Amino acid sequence: METQTLVLNSEKDIEGLRQSGHIVAKILWEMVSQLKPGVSSQKLDEIAGKYIKLLNAQSAPKMEGFPGNTCISVNEIIAHGVPNKRILRCGDRVNIDVSIKYRGYFGDVAFTVILGNSAHETNKLLECAKRATMKAIRLSVAGTKVNEISRAIEKEARDNDFTIIKNLCSHGIGKRLHAYPTNIINYYDPEETLILQEGMVIAWEPYISNGAIRAIEEDYEWNLTTHNQSDVAQFEHTVLVTKDKPEILTILD
After folding, report:
1. pLDDT tier for residue 44 given thresholds of 50, 70 and 90
2. Which of 16, 111, 114, 158 has the most CB atoms lying inside 10 A of its own CB?
């Protein structure tokens, strides 16, 4: 873990992050509203591109050379999914991850859904992943040890017979997409000594699986998968650390 600290104390910084968080939330839900069997991830990404341009923002993935405006991961692809022309079908598990830069500040949010099948067996996995993220958010108050939050995430997974993808991390966010602290592991490490400070902004995004513990490159591009094709779910929010009640920056009013 880094030895120096970047804490966002100014109201200007916080307001900038609120604005970028609002924008990514808006883009995500515009995409989710269009997500249904029969559309392609490329079409969804084009919708995102339209709104990113309309809102005078920049796609963070594109700034890093990614071929899409957003990451859309389907079924065996668990992260960094490249949008393509494949038609989505009922039962597909789809993860949409949106990150943008707006007026110098970044926002990051993600959501996983199963298309058209509320009885799908992996819904338990999605619910667990959602609870794990919300537990991390509720614990994001000044003075909390980061490894205690990671312990809570890991416990939620284990209590439901799921696993953590250990090499995909949560992270700080601000004037960079991955700001201090850049790599927050989502499982307990007794040697982790970082304590949250008021004004830190964290993008919590634990990846929960029904059998895998590592992400691997699916090919020579961007797509990540697992060695055993396990199901994986992820929910992400950008969160402002406060003295008492954390503020989720990536929800719509």
Report:
1. very high
2. 111
Distance CA 21, CA 181 (A): 18
At which residue do the structure tokens 């000594």 appear? 193
pTM: 0.93
Q: How far apart are CA 44 and CA 177, in angstroms?
A: 22
In sign, the C-alpha dihedral spanning 205, 65, 46, 21 is: positive
What are residue 155's phi and psi, to 5 degrees?
A: -65, -40
Q: What is the mean pLDDT of residues 168-175?
A: 96
Cβ–Cβ < 8 Å for 60, 100:
yes
Task: Return the number of other C-beta atoms located less than 10 Å from residue 10's C-beta.
Answer: 10
- For residue 22, the surrounding DSSP H or E stretch is helix 11-33
The topology (CATH level 3) of 11-248 is Creatine Amidinohydrolase (3.90.230)
**Lookup: tokens for 68:** 């899409």
pLDDT attached to residue 1: 40
Q: The tokens 């916080």 sit on which residue?
A: 14
